[in-house]
Amino acid sequence: EKFDPFECLEILARHRATGLVVVPVMLRRLCEAAETGRSGPSPDGVRWILCSGSALLPALERRARRVFGPTLRNLYGSTEAGWISVATPMDAVRKPGTVGRPLPGVDVEIVDRAGAVCHVGEIGEIVVRSKAVFSGYTGDSPGHVDGGGTYRLGDLGWLDEDGYLFVADRADDMVVTGGENVYPAEVERVLHDDPGVVDAAVVGVEDGEYGHVLAAFVVAAEGSRLAVDDVKAACRSHLANYKVPKHVWLVDALPYNASGKVLRRSLRADAAERLSTAREDK
């Protein structure tokens, strides 16, 4: 019912576990626990950590490598399509942010809105073909499957010149602001690189001038004096102006579901309520 990182580290050591499967938020908390210096058994026997469920940001991958050594594997897949790719520790060093090459028996294509295959490095929708793809949903739900082993994941990404797959964001999460496409995950990567930030999520909110703008929810590190202006300045130094969040709120924690995914719908509703309250106060 509740994940205790200290208890997890103790269990790993007590049972001499060699492998561990986590979602990113669990991995972050394990790193925090290991870095506290709190006395206890060390899980030195862990040879591999498999991380999946949501995006593994490069900053967290680097942190986990410092704490646990070269043990982390970044798995990309879905319930409907099975395992698609796995980035090894060496892949993470050579190609930061990659989810690896497609696994044997799995074909991945990147297609545009018309269904044409994208060029190398061009962002489009990720389509996977394999024998692991399910045949369809129960009931009348159409899903994204054609019944022939091909599945459209609803994710956007690209393949590089070496065949490595990168995930840009969920197609539903992309924000069009002033006619420009912005992927919240790109902004989140910048925020997580800030040592004063523990966690962050970015969503799109309606705006009368630009259609939509970005709003960032940021959890500051303990003891940090992080301010809203600091967050915007960090984004401004690495991103184009239209990618800098117009609204920034410092919060105690982000909402997660049971599988470790940020509840973006809740954040959008929260942002809308905050903005509405601000307008009423004026």
What's a quick, concise take on this entry?
The chain is an alpha/beta fold and 282 residues long. The protein contains 7 helices and 13 strands.
Structure description:
The chain has 282 residues and is α/β, with parallel strands linked by helices. It has helices spanning 5-14, 24-35, 58-68, 89-94, 184-192, 228-236, 264-281; strands at residues 19-22, 48-51, 72-78, 82-87, 107-111, 124-129, 150-159, 165-170, 175-177, 180-182, 197-207, 211-220, 247-250. The protein has a four-stranded mixed sheet. A four-stranded antiparallel sheet has the order 5-6-7-8. β7 and β8 form a beta hairpin. α1 crosses α2 and α2 packs across α3.
* Strand line-up in the sheet with most strands: 1-2-3-4
Q: What is the C-alpha radius of gyration, as a whole number of Å?
A: 20 Å
Number of strands: 13
Distance between the termini: 43 Å
Provide the low-confidence segments as ranges: none
Helix and strand pattern? HEHEHEEHEEEEEEHEEHEH
Shape designation: globular
Mean pLDDT: 91
Which secondary structure elements does this structure contain, and how are they paired or packed?
Blueprint: H1 5-14, E1 19-22, H2 24-35, E2 48-51, H3 58-68, E3 72-78, E4 82-87, H4 89-94, E5 107-111, E6 124-129, E7 150-159, E8 165-170, E9 175-177, E10 180-182, H5 184-192, E11 197-207, E12 211-220, H6 228-236, E13 247-250, H7 264-281
Parallel strand pairs: 1-2, 2-3, 12-13
Antiparallel strand pairs: 3-4, 5-6, 6-7, 7-8, 9-10, 11-12
Helix pairs in contact: 1-2, 2-3
